[in-house]
Design a protein that fits this description.
- It is built from 14 helices and 14 strands.
- It is of the alpha+beta class.
- It has three domains: 91 residues, N-terminal domain of TfIIb (Single Sheet); 140 residues, no CATH class; 68 residues, no CATH class.
- Strands 1, 2, 3, 4, 5 and 6 form a six-stranded mixed β-sheet that branches. The protein has a three-stranded mixed β-sheet with strand order 7-9-8. Strands 12-14-13 form a three-stranded antiparallel β-sheet.
- A hairpin with a 7-residue loop joins β8 and β9.
- α8 packs across α11 and α11 crosses α12.
C-alpha cells in the first residue's frame, strides 16, 4: 500500500464563487493567437432589424467569434463533470470576515476553489460553413432601374465618391454582419453589390445589390459591346475599353460605372485585391456560363408559379453567351440545388435561402446520428496524459 511522504494539502472554497466561463479553443484559433502578429478577433451578432427576419427565435440568439478570415459560432455545452477553478495560496496575509488578520492559521499549503463551471463554451463551424449572403440580401437595397426605363437619369442620381468613401460605407455595413470580413467581401462580390447615390437625389451613398433583371441587362450590354468593338473577353482586355463599348451613342451611361465594375469582378478569373479598380481582366468561361444561366433563370422564373419551359430556358441561355460558348449551356453546369421542376418539361429558380433550408435539413438528419462527442473532462485529461 503506497503512502504519501508529503503533508496533506488543504482544499477549501470561497463564498461567493466567482463567475468564470471557459472557452475551448480549436487548434487553428490557438495557432493564430500564438503568433507575434496575432489578428484582432471580434464578437459579432446580427442586429435586431436583421435577426427579426429569421423565423426561429433560437436561430437569432447567437454570438460569433470572427477573425479577419474565419467565423466560429460560440455555443454553450453542458459538461457531465463539473470543472473547478483552483487558486493556490500565495502566502499573503489572510483576513477574516471582520477584516482582522488570521495569522494563527497556516494556509501555506492550501488550494482554494474560486469558481465552479457546469458548462463550457466551444467554437463550432457548421458543415456548410458561414456565408454573408443571407444577411447582405436583407441589408442591401435592391437596384432595379436602367436608363431606358423611362424618366431615369443614371448620371443625375449618382454622386461623386472617392474610393475611401465607398470603402467606409462598405466597412460600416460589414460591421453589422456576423461573419468575418473576408466572408462579407465574398458575399458582396457574389451579389455584385456596389456603392452609389440614392434614388432620392440626396447627397449620400447607398449600398446596393442589383436585381437579376439589371444584372442580365448589364451582361447583355457587355456582350454586345465586346462583339461590336472586337474585344475577346476570354483573353486579357482593358476593363476601360469594355466600359466605353457599353456606353450609349451620346456617351450616356446606361447604368453606373460602379455596377459595371461589380458585375465584371464577379465574372473575371482573378478579381484582385478588394476595392481595387480592375484595369486588366479576362472572363472565367465556366463561372460566367453558370452565372448567366442562373441569373437569367432567376429573372425569368423566380418562383414555381412562374416556371418556364426547360427547352425555352436553354435556348435563351445559349443566346446570352458568346457564340463559341453556346455548347456549354446545360443543366449540369448550374449550381446544385439552384433549380427545380414542377414537371419534367418546366424549370424555375431556387434562391439562396431556400437552398440553405434544404441543405440544413439534410445535414441535421445526418448530424443527429454522427455529431455526438464526449463531454467528460476527466476522459479528455486522461487521454492527454497518455500522449
Amino acid at each position: 500500500m503506497s503512502t504519501q511522504a508529503a503533508r496533506s494539502i488543504r482544499f477549501t472554497h470561497t463564498f461567493p464563487q466567482q463567475g468564470f466561463r471557459l472557452l475551448e479553443l480549436p487548434p487553428e484559433v490557438l495557432e493564430l493567437l500564438s503568433k507575434e502578429d496575432a489578428p484582432v478577433f471580434h464578437l459579432k451578432s446580427p442586429p435586431s432589424d436583421l435577426s427579426q427576419t429569421t423565423g426561429e427565435p433560437a436561430a437569432r440568439e447567437y454570438v460569433n467569434l470572427c477573425s479577419p478570415t474565419q467565423t466560429f459560432r460560440i455555443r454553450q455545452v453542458q459538461s457531465s463533470n463539473s470543472i473547478h477553478i483552483l487558486k493556490p495560496n500565495d502566502g499573503s496575509t489572510q483576513l477574516n470576515d471582520n477584516g482582522i488578520e488570521t495569522g494563527d492559521l497556516d494556509l501555506s499549503e492550501t488550494v482554494t476553489t474560486i469558481a465552479k463551471c457546469g458548462s463550457t463554451l466551444e467554437l463550432h463551424v457548421p458543415p456548410g460553413g458561414f456565408s454573408a449572403v443571407p444577411f447582405l440580401e436583407k441589408a442591401l437595397r435592391v437596384y432595379d432601374r436602367l436608363s431606358w426605363d423611362g424618366d431615369v437619369s443614371i448620371r443625375g442620381v449618382g454622386i461623386e465618391m472617392t474610393m475611401a468613401e465607398r470603402r467606409a460605407l462598405k466597412e460600416k455595413l460589414f460591421a453589422d454582419i456576423p461573419v468575418s470580413t473576408a466572408q462579407c467581401q465574398s458575399g458582396w462580390d457574389e451579389l455584385c453589390a456596389f456603392v452609389h447615390g440614392d434614388d432620392a437625389g440626396n447627397d449620400r451613398g447607398v449600398c446596393w445589390r442589383p436585381s437579376a433583371r439589371v444584372k442580365m441587362a448589364v451582361w447583355k450590354r457587355m456582350l454586345e459591346g465586346s462583339v461590336l468593338q472586337g474585344i475577346d473577353i476570354e483573353k486579357q482586355f482593358l476593363a476601360g475599353d469594355l466600359w466605353k463599348a457599353v456606353l450609349d451613342d451620346d456617351e450616356e451611361e446606361p447604368f453606373p460605372r460602379a455596377l459595371f465594375d461589380a458585375v465584371l469582378k464577379r465574372l473575371v478569373e482573378a478579381p484582385g485585391a478588394n476595392d481595387m479598380e480592375i484595369k486588366w481582366a479576362n472572363v472565367d468561361k465556366a463561372a460566367c456560363t453558370r452565372w448567366v444561366g442562373e441569373t437569367y433563370l432567376q429573372s425569368s422564373a423566380p418562383t414555381a408559379s412562374a416556371a418556364i419551359v426547360r427547352t425555352d430556358f436553354l435556348n435563351a441561355w445559349r443566346d446570352h453567351l458568346p457564340e463559341s460558348w453556346r455548347s456549354e449551356a446545360s443543366l449540369s453546369a448550374l449550381t446544385n440545388g439552384s433549380y427545380r421542376s414542377t414537371d419534367p418539361t418546366t424549370i424555375y429558380f431556387i434562391d439562396y435561402a431556400e437552398r440553405e433550408k434544404t441543405k440544413g435539413s439534410a445535414v441535421n438528419g445526418v448530424g443527429a446520428a454522427t455529431a455526438k462527442t464526449s463531454r467528460n473532462w476527466h476522459e479528455r485529461f486522461r487521454n492527454q496524459r497518455r500522449q
